Amino acid sequence: MSAPEAFQLSLGPLTGVAFGPDRTEVAISPNNNEAQIYKKNGDTWDLQHTLAEHDKLITAISWAPQTNRIVTCSQDRNAYVWTQTPQGWKPALVLLRINRAATCVKWSPKEDKFAVGSGARTIAVCSFDEENNWWVSKHVKKPLRSTVLSIDWHPNNVLLAAGTAESKAYVVSAFIKNIDSKPAPTVWGDKLPFGTICGEFNSPTGGWVHDVAFSPSGDILGFVAHDSSVNIVYPSSPGSPPQAFISIRTPSLPYLSLTFTSESTLIAAGHDCQPVLFSGDSSGWSLSSSLDDPANSKSASGGGGSGRVVSGSGPGRLNNAAFGFFKDADTRGQTNRASGGAGGSTVTGGVAVGADGMLLTVHQNSITLVEPYEWDANGGVGKVVTAGKDGRLVVWDVAGKR
Question: Which domains does the chain have, with CATH numbers?
Answer without folding.
Answer: 5-397 (2.130.10.10)
